[in-house]
Amino acid sequence: MTLVGYSSLKPRSFGEYVRSAYAEKGLVVQPRMGFAEPARMAAGLAATKAARANTVGTITVDSYTRVGDHEHVRTALEHGLQLNGYPIVDHPADVTAKTLDGVLSEDFPVQVRHGSARPGAIFAALSRLGLDASEGGPVSYCLPYGRVPLQESINNWSEATSQFAFQSGGTAHLETFGGCLLGQLCPPSVLVALSVLEARFFCLHGVSSVSLSYAQQTHFEQDIEAVAAMRRLATEFVPARDVHFVLYAYMGVYPRTRKGALDLLREAAHLAVATGMERLIVKTSAEAHRIPTIAENVEALEEADDAARHPGDRHLADPGNVGSDCVYREARNLVEAVLELSPDLSRGLHIAFRRGILDIPFCLHPDNAGRTRSRIDPQGRLQWLDVGSMPIRPTVEPVGPSVRLTSQGLLADLNLVRDRFDRPELAGREPVAPID
Predict the structure, then answer these.
(1) pLDDT at 150 over 70
(2) Strand partners, 58
(3) Average pLDDT rounded to a whole number, residues 134-151
(4) pLDDT at 407 over 90
(5) Given a cut of 60, is residue 317 above it in pLDDT?
(6) SS3 per residue for the chain
(7) What value does the mean pLDDT take over residues 127-134?
(8) Greatest CA span in the chain, whole angstroms?
(9) Are strands 373-376 and 382-386 parallel, antiparallel or unpaired?
(10) Contact 211, 203 (CB under 8 A)
(11) 154-173 average pLDDT score
């Protein structure tokens, strides 16, 4: 049963809304906002809607709900304990409906973001509420987040996605999280390949409106190449009727200074403009320290919107005119290798990780082979040191003492972006230009 009692109609499709809003007003910006208390969640959605920016809304689910620990959720709600998101399964549907009433509308859709390898209960809660937009994926919401076996996650996502598509009446929209796997130090070809594979997975389970994600990495021009590769591969492998592309502001170690954090966010907005991304998921100036307030979320939305409207000449690149197709060739090799394993993509994904054909560097999940390694080169690009059994070649050859991975080098790579944007502020100087 669907509870739709909102004072104004929701848009027919999240994806269709984003594309039309982008065509009319430019880049759509979106927060990662989630609060446990319905009144505060409603206030956050209202503030997002009222921001001086082209926005859509977000309800981010808490971590207990993500892992299905509803006993802890109920205990927290009963005793007024803090949660790090909105427990959409355990709040009564009529409570969430009231939270959305007057906010969800034709010109303000809301997406639910979660992070679960067991999304069935979350998707069921969305369906009861008449919400039809979410995100994640069978691989990207399994490997980095826990110990759920990959095959179990794939099975969970297969069933939940099919049910979500059916119960939405054809309007369901899902966004891949594969383009952000582990946040950092994962060379772009794997991020692109997984985003394409997860989008294809959604389509094969009945979802015809998808968005493909990519996370801002360490090098502006390499990211432009990666997004161009993802667009090209989407046309070749994703059989959706409605597609758009979404960029995540940097998902690794974030700047500690307010100015450094906002400068990095503005760089993400510039990248979104340069690559023609329709939507940007923002990060706030408080990202390195705590859960952001409503005001800090609004500040980030408005800062990103302003940056998108004033990108500067350096960022007016033609996203289709990139200098190298290295990312495309690597990503295509990975996608084709998975599809050749089995006519059933669910089975192919599982076999690919079992054989190391897909292998995420520095990922400790038991179902990840863990034989790949990467480094940031002197130009700031993410490169392969060791590709394990993946059907691609290392991008750093030969592996001599100057490029061999050490604990000190790994720590420097993890903090490179943070330090690049913090250092000028801490030194009292103007920010340096990003590495070209």
Answers:
(1) yes
(2) 111
(3) 93
(4) no
(5) no
(6) CCCCCCCCCCCCCHHHHHHHHHHHHCCEEECCCCCCCHHHHHHHHHHHHHCCCCECEEEECCHHHHCCCHHHHHHHHHHCCCCCCCCCCCCCHHHHHHHHCCCCECCECEEEECCCCCCHHHHHHHHHHCCCEEEECCCCCCCCCCCCCHHHHHHHHHHHHHHHHHHCCCCCEEEECHHHCCCCCCCHHHHHHHHHHHHHHHHHCCCCEEEEEEECCCCHHHHHHHHHHHHHHHHHHCCCCEEEEEEECCCCCCCCCHHHHHHHHHHHHHHHHHHCCCEEECCCCCCCCCCCCHHHHHHHHHHHHHHHHCCCHHHCCCCCCCCCCHHHHHHHHHHHHHHHHCCCHHHHHHHHHHHCCCCCCCCCCCCCCCCCEEEECCCCCEEEEECCCCCCCCCCCCCCCCCCCCHHHHHHHHHHHHHHHHHHHHCCCCCCCCCC
(7) 96
(8) 65
(9) antiparallel
(10) no
(11) 96
- The residue assigned the tokens 């269709």 is 16
What would the two tokens of residue 251 be?
A: 């998902």
Long-range Cβ pairs for the range 350-358 (8 Å, 24+): 350/150, 350/151, 350/154, 353/139, 353/150, 355/389, 356/388, 356/389, 356/390, 357/389, 357/390, 357/391, 358/139, 358/190, 358/193, 358/194, 358/334, 358/390
Separation between Cα atoms, residue 113 and residue 33, nearest integer Å: 9
Tens of pLDDT, residue by residue over 233-276, are 999 999 999 999 999 999 988 999 999 999 999 999 999 999 99
Residue 328: how many CB atoms within 10 A of its CB?
21
The owner of tokens 């000449």 is 313
Write the burial class of residue 17 (CB in 10 Å: 0-12 exposed, 13-18 middle, 19+ buried). Answer: buried
One-letter amino acid for residue 191 of the chain: L
Convert the pLDDT of each residue in 190-222 to its tens digit: 999 999 999 999 999 999 999 999 999 999 999
- Token pair for 87: 């427990």
Q: How far apart are CA 292 and CA 285, in angstroms?
A: 8
Looking at residue 20, its pLDDT comes to 96
